[in-house]
Design a protein that fits this description.
heterodimer, A: 207 residues, alpha/beta, Rossmann fold, three-stranded mixed beta sheet, 6 helices, 28% helix, globular, B: 256 residues, TIM Barrel, eight-stranded parallel barrel, two-stranded antiparallel sheet, 32% helix, 26% strand
Chain lengths: 207, 256
C-alpha cells in the first residue's frame, strides 16, 4: 500500500487514479499510523514552497516523512513535493525537508518567448541507471508546470534533466528518496511506466 | 513558436451530455463525455479542457460526480470551467484531478476570485477565459455562455486577467465557434501580443493547418478546438478524433 500524503495541497485524485490502473492499493492520508505502515510514500504538492512546508509541519507529517526516509522507506516527491525534499528554495524562507542536498532557483530568461512557468510537455534525459527508470526506453515525454528548478550540490543526485532555456535537473535521487519535477500522473503511459517502477521499488523494499 | 505547443481538445457538456455548438448557439448532441475522454486518453492528447456551458446560466455548481468519472479516465492535464463562483469549488476541482480551473463569468463579475485563487493555489491553476465577438469595428467580451455583454474589449480584459494573477488566458471567438474555417488570427494575436502569460486560442479550428496558423501567425502558445476533435468529414459525422503525433510533427507543429 502506498500512502499519498494529504496536507491540503496537490493533485491527489490524479495520483490515486493512476495507482488504481497500476493495480496498487493506495490511501490518501495524513494519518501517521497509516504512513508508517505504508510500503512507500508519495509526496505530491502544488503551490508555493513556504505554504507547502507550513502545511507539512502543521499537519504533523514533516517529521514522519524524515523518519521514514531515514529508515529506508521509498519516497517519491512530485512537483512541489520534489522541491520540498531539498534544503531551500528561492521562492521561500523556510528550510525544506533536507533529504537531498539541492536548492530551487527561479527560471529567468532574456528570451521573452520562453514563458514562465515552464508549462507543457517536454523530453527528459536520463543521467544514471536507476530502478525508477527500468524498462523506459525511447523518448520519454512528461508534463511540466513549474517556475523553480532544482540545482543539486552533488551530480550523483541528478537522475534526469530537461532543457528549457537551460539544461536543468528535473529528477533527483538519493538512496530511497526520489523526486520528479514533472507530473507522471498526468503524463499518459510515460508516467504510468515511471509510477509502476516506483510501486515495484516499494514492494521489493522491506522497510 | 515553442518546441511543443499544446493541442487541446475542448469538450462542451451540458447536463452530462457531450454537445457541440455553432457560434455559441445551435447545438448538436454527441454522446457520452466519459467515453470521449477514454478515446482522447488512448490518443495521448496533450491536454483536455472540459467546459460545462449550462452551469453558470442555470446557476448550478460544478457537477462533481461526472467530473470525477472524467478525471478517473484522463491521464493528461485537465482543466474545467463552468459554474465556478467560489474558492471551495476551486479547491474541490483541484482535489479531484483537475490541474486548472477556467473562469469566465466569475472572472468578470468577481475579479477577486481570480486573485485569491491564484494566491492560494498558484497562478498556474487559474485560467481566465475571454469570449469575444466582433461588433462594428471592434470586439466586445461576453460572459455567461455568450449571452451577457460586458463593457470590456478583449485586449483590456486580457491585461486585466494577467494583472489579477491568472496563469493563462483562453481567447475564444464567438463568431468562429463551430465554423471550422480557421481561427480569428487578428483577435488571437492582439491578445497574445499584450500579455506575458501563455495564451490558448480557440474558435474556428477545422484542421491541422489552422492549428499551425494560429500558433505561428496568431502567436498563440497553445491551440484548442472543439469541432475538429469530434467531427469527421464535410457532413460532420460524429467521430472522436485527434491528429496523431506523426501528423503534428510532419506539419512542423511539434519540434521535439
Amino acid at each position: 500500500m502506498i500512502a499519498i500524503l494529504d496536507y491540503g495541497l496537490g493533485n491527489l485524485g490524479s495520483i490515486s487514479n493512476m495507482l488504481k490502473v497500476i493495480g496498487e492499493k493506495c490511501k490518501i492520508t495524513n494519518n501517521v499510523e497509516i504512513i508508517r505502515r505504508a510500503d512507500g510514500i508519495i509526496l505530491p504538492g502544488v503551490g508555493a514552497f513556504d505554504a507547502g512546508m507550513n502545511k507539512l509541519i502543521d499537519s504533523g507529517i514533516a517529521d514522519v516523512i524524515k523518519d521514514e526516509a531515514n529508515r529506508g522507506k521509498p519516497i517519491l516527491g512530485i512537483c512541489l513535493g520534489m522541491q520540498l525534499l531539498g534544503t531551500r528554495s528561492e521562492e521561500g524562507t523556510l528550510p525544506g525537508l533536507s533529504l537531498i542536498p539541492f536548492e530551487c532557483k527561479k527560471f529567468s530568461f532574456e528570451d521573452k518567448s520562453l514563458k514562465i512557468p515552464h508549462m507543457g510537455w517536454d523530453i527528459v534525459e536520463f543521467k544514471q541507471h536507476h530502478p525508477l527508470l527500468d524498462g523506459l526506453s525511447g523518448l520519454q515525454r512528461y508534463y511540466f508546470v513549474h517556475s523553480y528548478y532544482a540545482v543539486c550540490e552533488d551530480q550523483d543526485n541528478v537522475l534526469m534533466t530537461c532543457d528549457y532555456g537551460i539544461e536543468f535537473t528535473c529528477s533527483v535521487v538519493k538512496d530511497n528518496v526520489m523526486g520528479v519535477q514533472f507530473h507522471p500522473e498526468k503524463s499518459h503511459d510515460f508516467g504510468l511506466g515511471l509510477l509502476s517502477n516506483f510501486v515495484k521499488i516499494c514492494n521489493h523494499n522491506n522497510v | 513558436m515553442f518546441n511543443r505547443p499544446r493541442i487541446i481538445p475542448t469538450l462542451l457538456i451540458d447536463d452530462r451530455d457531450l454537445i457541440k455548438t455553432v457560434q455559441f448557439g445551435k447545438r448538436t448532441y454527441l454522446g457520452d463525455p466519459v467515453n470521449a475522454v477514454k478515446i482522447f486518453n488512448r490518443k495521448r492528447i496533450d491536454e483536455l479542457s472540459i467546459l460545462d456551458i449550462g452551469a453558470t446560466k442555470n446557476h448550478k455548481e460544478p457537477d462533481y460526480e461526472i467530473l470525477k468519472d472524467i478525471a478517473s479516465e484522463a491521464f493528461m492535464p485537465l482543466s474545467y470551467g463552468g459554474g465556478i463562483t467560489n474558492l471551495d469549488q476551486v479547491q474541490e476541482l483541484l482535489k479531484i484531478g483537475y490541474e486548472k480551473v477556467v473562469l469566465n463569468s466569475a472572472f468578470v463579475r468577481n475579479p477577486e476570485l481570480v486573485t485569491k485563487s491564484a494566491e492560494l493555489f498558484g497562478s498556474q491553476s487559474i485560467v481566465a477565459s475571454i469570449d469575444a465577438k466582433k461588433t462594428n469595428s471592434d470586439y466586445k467580451c461576453f460572459i455567461s455562455d455568450g449571452v451577457e455583454e460586458t463593457k470590456w474589449n478583449p485586449v483590456d480584459l486580457a491585461r486585466e486577467a494577467e494583472r489579477l494573477g491568472a496563469g493563462e488566458i483562453i481567447i475564444n471567438s464567438i463568431d468562429n465557434d463551430g465554423m471550422m474555417n480557421g481561427y480569428d488570427i487578428n483577435l488571437v494575436k492582439s491578445v497574445a501580443d499584450v500579455v506575458s502569460i501563455p495564451v490558448i486560442a480557440i474558435g474556428g479550428a477545422g484542421g491541422i493547418k489552422d492549428l499551425k496558423e494560429v500558433l505561428q501567425d496568431g502567436h498563440a502558445h497553445a491551440a484548442a478546438g472543439g469541432s475538429m476533435f469530434v467531427y469527421y468529414g464535410k457532413l460532420r459525422a460524429v467521430l472522436i478524433t485527434a491528429p496523431s503525433e506523426d501528423e503534428l510533427t510532419a506539419a512542423g507543429i511539434y519540434n521535439c
